[in-house]
């Protein structure tokens, strides 16, 4: 799922098999994902924007727009640090450039700088209270910042903007489940809420298929089979696989199968669909798995002592 608008100029070469041996991956994974992204058009566009930025007669507003556009291009080919510096330059030239704050917030989340992320998304909403994705991005920041209870309100606000978007249901469910896991005495309502809300979805499309994994209506193998069918292009296949891998990984993580979850998060990263939420946060999910494993090991050692 895209962060706030559809990516442009993406050219994908023929797909290649994931580079994992049979002993390293679950036996059921037989699907393929692109492991190389042709960035030639992005590089050309970046060079042109850079040339424009060297002109002496640009207004601050024009500079801000050029830095912002170049930053987006950097972001689309995975150069998030260069994108970050351009977004800072964009805001320096135009402190009201809403989308630049939005991109900065996403960057800070991925760097685990949650306080700065909250400030960036707050700035978006101060400048544009009805911004479509600021609530979602701030909710994700709160979710990964270990504040799921606070994330619930933003996820609900995002859902109210479009109750037919299955991805909004999915992430709201993740936050509700996190709240339940923090409060063992609370009523387990997250899964039932997901079922109730998904029953109201107008379309039975790919997005809803992702939800069916969690409602036990599809197995991971069946979801991957669906991802491999009905695609108009290799890019569409790659995007669907990125999503499928990520949500399958979350599914296995919930089951406590960290080995399989880790494999699928790495598979999502291997698709290089840089603009998707699922790609952006797969690395954070891997870190969380690693941290949980470390905590478990420390607890075991303390018990043995």
Automatic annotation (TrEMBL):
PROSITE patterns assigned: TPR
Cellular component terms per the entry's GO annotation: plasma membrane
Leader sequence segment: 1-22
TPR repeat placement: 98-131
InterPro entries on file: Lipoprotein_NlpI, TPR-like_helical_dom_sf, TPR_rpt
Compartments reported by the entry: Cell membrane
Top-level taxon of the source organism: Bacteria
Transmembrane segments: none
Pfam family, one: TPR_8
Main location: membrane
Keyword tags: Cell membrane, Lipoprotein, Membrane, Signal, TPR repeat
Subunit structure: Homodimer.
Function noted in UniProt: May be involved in cell division.
Protein name in the entry: Lipoprotein NlpI
Organism: Catenovulum agarivorans DS-2
């Amino acid at each position: 799922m895209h962060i706030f608008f559809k990516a442009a100029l993406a050219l994908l070469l023929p797909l290649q098999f994931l580079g994992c041996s049979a002993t390293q991956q679950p036996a059921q994974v037989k699907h393929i994902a692109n492991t190389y992204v042709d960035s030639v058009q992005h590089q050309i566009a970046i060079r042109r924007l850079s040339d424009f930025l060297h002109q002496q007669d640009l207004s601050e507003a024009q500079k801000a727009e050029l830095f912002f556009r170049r930053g987006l291009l950097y972001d689309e080919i995975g150069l998030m640090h260069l994108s970050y510096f351009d977004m800072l330059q964009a805001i320096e030239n135009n402190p009201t450039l809403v989308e630049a704050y939005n991109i900065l917030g996403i960057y800070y989340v991925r760097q685990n700088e949650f306080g700065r992320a909250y400030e960036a998304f707050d700035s978006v909403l101060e400048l544009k209270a009805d911004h479509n994705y600021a609530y979602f991005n701030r909710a994700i920041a709160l979710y990964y910042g270990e504040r799921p209870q606070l994330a619930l309100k933003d996820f609900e606000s995002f859902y109210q903007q479009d109750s037919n978007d299955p991805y909004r249901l999915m992430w709201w469910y993740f936050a509700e489940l996190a709240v339940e896991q923090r409060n063992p005495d609370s009523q387990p309502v997250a899964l039932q809420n997901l079922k109730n809300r998904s029953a109201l979805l107008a379309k039975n499309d790919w997005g809803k298929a992702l939800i069916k994994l969690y409602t036990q209506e599809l197995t991971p193998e069946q979801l991957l089979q669906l991802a491999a069918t009905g695609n108009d292009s290799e890019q569409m296949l790659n995007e669907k696989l990125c999503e499928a891998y990520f949500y399958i990984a979350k599914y296995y993580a919930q089951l406590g199968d960290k080995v399989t979850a880790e494999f699928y998060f790495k598979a999502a990263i291997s698709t290089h669909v840089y603009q998707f939420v699922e790609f952006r946060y797969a690395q954070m999910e891997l870190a969380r798995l690693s941290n949980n494993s470390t905590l478990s090991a420390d607890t075991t050692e303390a018990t043995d002592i």
